[in-house]
Write a structure and sequence with these properties.
By secondary structure, the protein is mainly α. It has 2 domains: 67 residues, no CATH class; 181 residues, no CATH class. The chain has 9 helices and no strands. The longest helix is centred in the C-terminal third of the chain and has 40 residues. It is elongated, with a radius of gyration of 25 Å.
């Protein structure tokens, strides 16, 4: 099956899921108020409650469409994906492991690392909200707290100060006064820097192997033979003998702390 066909089918499946969610939301709204009609026109609304329900549905659909990007940006996904991609380039196998394997491993490692945070969100915000013990605003604030704590732990003070200065905000007395809109880009910048630092350290041993192989081939007069063809088996052998996946995955998980 061609990659274009797979991409088209993936888009079609995503569209079907989106339409299904829209239908479910409409049915829920209609069940809550049978007199509610969801329509888009320029006529003034007769019942403010109906207009409020329609706006909530549109906002919920918007959030659902942006949810993957939001979850990627506020979790450890960025660091892991960049490090694994740089590792593949350092080894020299541009197509192995495939992108699906890289993304799949990154997703499962993200779930593994973020599970304590999500359990805290479920225990302190989602479950009380479903039990009608918290309002939506209180549940949102309580759900935001564990995620902010995770991001603050991984964010450098220098990056945080940069975004606070650009936003022209007064100097916060403590981290709790830092707005989330400032914290998220600061966290992303810190994650990018950390990922490239780890990638640089991964490049060094493979670069040494490439230089040694290139020097040996040049000294033997085999200038027409690409060094990559000779160095790749050696890099794979050393990576396997040192149990590279064990070391890299363990280092990535431990880099986020307990």
């Amino acid at each position: 099956m061609r990659p274009q066909h797979i991409h088209i089918r993936t888009q079609a499946a995503a569209l079907m899921v989106f339409l299904f969610l829209a239908i479910v939301c409409a049915e829920v709204a209609f069940a809550a108020d049978p007199g509610t009609l969801l329509r888009v026109d320029l006529q003034p609304g007769g019942n403010p409650a109906n207009v409020s329900v329609a706006i909530q549905i549109f906002l919920m659909l918007t959030v659902l469409s942006l949810a993957p990007s939001i979850l990627i940006m506020v979790t450890c996904f960025t660091r892991i994906a960049i490090v694994l991609s740089l590792l593949r380039q350092a080894i020299g196998s541009n197509q192995l492991p495939p992108n699906q394997i890289i993304v799949g491993l990154t997703l499962f490692l993200t779930v593994f690392i973020m599970t304590p945070v999500w359990q805290t969100v479920h225990r302190e915000a989602l479950k009380p909200y479903l039990d009608n013990q918290l309002s939506s605003d209180e549940a949102l604030r309580k759900a935001e707290a564990p995620i902010r704590a995770f991001m603050l732990k991984q964010t450098r003070e220098k990056d945080l100060a940069l975004l606070v200065d650009i936003a022209k905000l007064p100097r916060p007395k403590n981290v709790s006064e830092v707005p989330t809109t400032v914290l998220i880009p600061s966290f992303i910048i810190s994650e990018l820097k950390t990922a490239f630092q780890i990638g640089f350290m991964l490049y060094i041993p493979f670069l040494i192997i490439d230089m040694v192989v290139a020097s040996v081939l040049l000294s033997m007069g085999m200038m027409m033979l690409p060094p990559v063809m000779v160095s790749l088996p050696f890099k794979l052998m050393i990576f396997v003998l040192t149990d590279g996946w064990y070391l890299i995955v363990g280092s990535l998980v431990k880099s986020f702390g307990p």
